[in-house]
UniProtKB/TrEMBL annotation:
Keywords: Kinase, Serine/threonine-protein kinase, Transferase
Organism from which the protein derives: Kitasatospora kazusensis
Position of the signal peptide: none
Name of the featured protein: Histidine kinase/HSP90-like ATPase domain-containing protein
Protein origin, superkingdom: Bacteria
Domain Histidine kinase/HSP90-like ATPase: 32-136
Gene3D superfamilies in the record: Histidine kinase-like ATPase, C-terminal domain (3.30.565.10)
Amino acid sequence: MSARPVWDILEESWTVTVGDVEAVALSRSRALAAASGWCSQPLPILVAQSIRLVVSELVTNALRHAGEAGPITVTIWLTPHKNLAVLVKDGSPEPPILSQPYDDGTAGRGLAVVAAETISWSWRAENRGGKTVSATIALPGSATARRATPASQQALTS
Ligand SMILES: Nc1ncnc2c1ncn2[C@@H]1O[C@H](COP(=O)(O)OP(=O)(O)OP(=O)(O)O)[C@@H](O)[C@H]1O
Ligand SMILES: [Mg+2]
C-alpha cells in the first residue's frame, strides 16, 4: 500500500473492492497524489485532469464489466521515460472494445476518452487468467511531452 522505490522505478499498487462506493474516487486521488510526488514539476491542470479521467474510466470498467470475475488491482508507475503508466488488472478474459461513440448513445465513451487522453493504451491477457488494461499519460518534462508540444508553442518557449 505504500510507494516503493525499486532502483529508479516508482510504483504503487492497491486493490479495488466491488461494492465499495468510494473505490473510484479513492483510486483517482491516490494516482493523482503519487503522480504529483513523482513528477519533477507541478502537474498542469490538464495533466491532472487526464489522470483523473483515465483512472476513473479504467477502474469503472473493471468494476462494471469484470467486477464479478475476481480481484481488481490498480498499479501505477513512473516509466523510464518519466510518464505515468496506469494498469488495471481484473479477472475477466473479455477484452475492452474501443468503439465509435454515437452522439445519442448512452455508453461506449470511456475507452474513447482513455485513447484521447493518453500516449497509448492496450490490454493483455494474463497467464493465470483475467487481463490487464494499461494506459500511459505524458507527464510534464518527459521526452514524450516535449515531442507532443505543438511546433507553434515550441517556437514561443524555446
Ligand atoms: N475491464 C473490462 N472487462 C471486460 N470488458 C470490458 C472492460 N472494459 C471495457 N470492456 C468492454 O468494452 C466496452 C467499451 O468500454 P467503454 O468504457 O468504452 O464503454 P462502456 O463502459 O460500455 O460505457 P461508458 O464508459 O461510456 O460508461 C464495454 O462496453 C465492455 O464491453
Ligand atoms: Mg466504460
